[in-house]
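ASSEMBLY PREDICTION REQUEST
Request ID: AP-0331
Submitted by: J.K., bench scientist
Number of chains: three
Total residues: 1182
Priority: normal
Notes: Please return the full assembly, not individual chains.
Input sequences:
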Amino acid sequence: MAEKRRENPLFDAITDPDGVFSSLFFPAMSVFLGLASAGVLMPFLGHSPAAVYRDLFSFAFRDIYNIADIFAKASPLILTGLAFAFAFRAGLFNIGAQGQFYLGAVASAACALSFPYLPSWVLLPLCAAASMAAGGLWGGMTGFFKARFNANEFLVSMMSTYVAVAIMDFLVRSPLREAKGEYPQTDVLAEAAWIPSFLPGTRFHWGFFLALAAAGAAWVLLWKTTLGFRMRAVGKNRAAARFAGIREKSVFVSVFLVSGAFAGLAGFLEVNGVQHMVVQGFNPLLGAEGIGIAVLGSAHPLGVVLSALLFGALKVGGLLVTQTSSVPSSIIAILEGFVMLYVILSFYLRHRLRRSRSRRRTAAGGEAP
Amino acid sequence: MESPHNEALSLRGIMKVFPGVLANAGVNLSARRGEILAILGENGAGKSTLMKILYGMYQPDSGAVSVNGREVRIRSPKDALALGIGMIHQHFTLVPVHTVWENVVLGLDPSSGRPADRKGAVRELEALGRKYGLAVDPCAVVADLSVGMQQKTEILKVLYRSVSILVLDEPTAVLTPGEAENLFGFLQEFRAAGNTVLFITHKLGEVMEIADRIEVLRGGRNAGSFLRGEVTERELAARMVGGDIPPVGEPPSRPTGRDVLEVRDLWVRGSRGHHAVRGVSFAVRAGEIFGVAGVSGNGQEELADCVCGLARQERGEILLDGRVLPREDPGAVFRAGVGYIPADRHREGLVLDMTVEENLVLKNLPAYSRKGFLREGAIRENAERRIADYGIRPPLPGSRTASLSGGNQQKVVAAREIEAGRKCIVAVQPTRGLDLGAAAHVHRMLAGARSEGRAVFLVSTELSEIMSLSDTVAVMTGGEILGIFPRESADLRMIGMLMAGRKGEPE
Amino acid sequence: MILEGLLARAVQMSTPLLLGSLGEVMVERTGVMNMAIEGIFLLGAWAGFTGAYITGSLAAGFLCAMAAGVAVGALYGWITVCLKQHQIVTGVAINILAAGIGIFFYRVLFGVPLLPLTVEPLRPLAVPFLSDIPVIGPALFRQNILTYLAWGAMPLGWWVLFRTRTGLVLRSTGANPEAVDAAGISVERVRFGAVLAAGALSGLAGAFYSIGYLGLFSNDMIGGRGWIAFALCFLGNWNPLGALLGAVVFGIADAAAITLQTSGIRMVPNEFLIALPYMLTIAATLARKRFNVPASLGTAYIKEEK
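STATUS: Completed
Returned structure:
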């Protein structure tokens, strides 16, 4: 019996549902299947999926400008992905990243518009701090409600997004409105509030590295600090954490503060790095996409970064495709939805693999490991 | 020899594998009409699994089942019920928020939109209750009933569907000795009517009292089949364990020393708003094992929870070495030197998805962190020391705790708590679900703590465990401590009576 | 006059909330949360409009909407009940997908019209005599047929849930699935069936917005109201009559917001009125201290676990 098991260690390693190979294979497969499924729909509008995807990928990598754009698009996605993933690790659901993003954006813009005469090296950190504070406090509100009232944070964070949208709409229509008063948007921000560009001539700005730093900070927080330890304990086994004396209420609040700050920072990146103003209703899917990215990235900061880059590439190529042909922009949401569904199905597959491995081992060896 | 006319059911070559566990490895079993068959084995021997296969809740990987001489496929409890097989589970399958009659009627004619017939059901239930001596108020809400009453509801549920083969899984685990006698009386009547009873247990005493035949299981396999008159308890125990019985426990020492843990007039409210602990007072001395016996659900867990800061007392004081323990602060209680081995290590003791070294510092993070960051070196060192001291296998601090066996998981909990409990250790059901070897190990650790001069507060529903370990025995019933005796003068009959004392069950 | 109009509109706007929350109560009573509710509302709206536009019959549209709801419910149910995957993540995935699929197929079928396509929405059906009672008459008895159905469905739902054997099974599944399993009923079948029913009701609810009220389809016409129906299940304490009460309150808030907006009274900024229902939901979620939560809500029923 023993020889049979040792027959092929390579096979064992590859099919190990918790191993490195699987961590890459399953997400990659999910993306592939997602593309295929969306591709099945394209002929309905008379497009050939092969042609569309060929265009998509060639557009995305066509020139330096587009490749740089991938990083620009990925930057805020990393942060909204982190927002969801971070809370998820504590067993919490922050669905309000979109609202936290908007309020962070508005706070940053308000800061820039109020102090346009300040030098860059003061104004930029100020705006960043404002965005994190706004997003963090808004998210923290949800955490507080959960701690104090045992409210369902899914529902509260979801509703708070709609409220945040209303707040942003209001601000952009009156107090912060552009001098011209024509459109519901702010004035263009002073140049001192612009995040410097990393690659001149493209939209790739230094904010991307700020996002990477945030991912690094998330990793450190989760695995190297006591807060992270407490979070993970609460996330995996509330009862044991409570029994161990971990105050879960303070964990709830802290987690949402940090999670909201991540999402708020995304607002700083978008407003000060790319748009240089706030337009009503911009980037409406950033929060939802962040969820998809977090799931695809297995709620791990590294996975989030990689997934965000992937989604960034899909968006850059996808947008160009929709602009140059009549493929509708809804295909992007369809793509994201399919990818998420396949990731969920892959979780199921891995679960089955784990069980059948365990069963095989037990039947052969007869004893629990 | 089985006469085919008399054989009610037979299981042949049953095989069942779960991830990580070989539950049944080719088990054979048969039972006759008008017979009580006891299925004996320790925890993990595969008894429950076998019966769940019979009842259709699990499907065997291979093997055959025959009922009344005909081979059958039991794919679900529905099929089992249709064949006249009913099961009373260890953990009651009742819906607590519903009434007795609603629970009994559940599942009959489920897809009709017909209104549930309350009056008819109540009438029939009362008749059944009278017939078998199982009177329960059909309109009572199950959550309000005593455990004995709840079990009667389970039985009525099964009788309502006319079964001829009744399977009971550890039915006396939650009963007082008085209630258990009632149950046995019912079983004997049931048998006299020509029906079959399969009775799963790990208690040797019960088997000798009630069974006609005994089937022993060990490690998922058959380990002996006997008529009751042909075998002694000693022999059965040997078959259960597969060798010599390990020594029962160390002789009690004479505890001297001061009172370490003192509880004075403690009142604690339970989850349903009533008082689970009513005016309890006692003291545990250094170098003493103080064992509280009692059927589960009498307030023992609430008492232990309160001592360790997990529940708030309404009135009364808890003192450690003369100083009042911090209320509702498990971390502080831990740091004050009280270890707590909880009843359910999966739920409360361990975060299974974390590593062994992480679980070992779970309750004492401040000692292993500096300015908010974890001191990984110190954590690793601590783990290596504990692993060596307590023989935790496999000796890998970074392995996921879920991958350890039950016994080793309990060792992790014990290692953490016994190390921390330099003054006092509270242990609730510390050997639940463990095989005899692991259980003996835990007992040795507790006895060792006692020898070092610590106070040990032990709560267990297994009377044998209490009797073999404790220096002082107390009985807790209905939230009150009804008697405290030194072990030598404790008498099983008296304890049994005390356990039944305030339950409100007629003898 | 204004009060009458307000009440009438409140009753009307509560219709989809009633249907959606009834479905949610049914399914949550078995222990499953329908996290795809917003997406089902949207696809129901799309399917309803498409069916009605193509066949020219509103009834056909509503049937299509229910079918779409059942289909999406089947997908959600398969993943969460049968494959036992996480309910919230699956719901989010389906909601994102729904946001794209509806508008995509609208484009496939109808292209990009200059003006949005319309159908004639439901007309009110006055009940003789009763609709002439002052104030409440028009509010309660001059509504469209879907509203009457929805209001009738709530007491019917209550009766099914609390007075029939089927209801007993539903409630028991959520309270203690082991009990149902031991009684010989497949827990998965019960839950899957409940998810399908919730899907049908939510699809119908979504179609109210497209063919019951506005007469057109747009991708942001649901605007989070599926989530409000979801919240009403909580707030109504998992009881159809409780949800009814909640739906009325929200219907009033919704109607008040619209009335204030259209009447031009500028006491509060428009955005505040738009945000009102969502703020109310949050407030109500906080105020509910003691829930009768079905004990197994949100957890998959795993049998052969070791």
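REVIEWER COMMENTS: The longest strand of chain C covers residues 125-126.
SIGN-OFF: pending second reviewer
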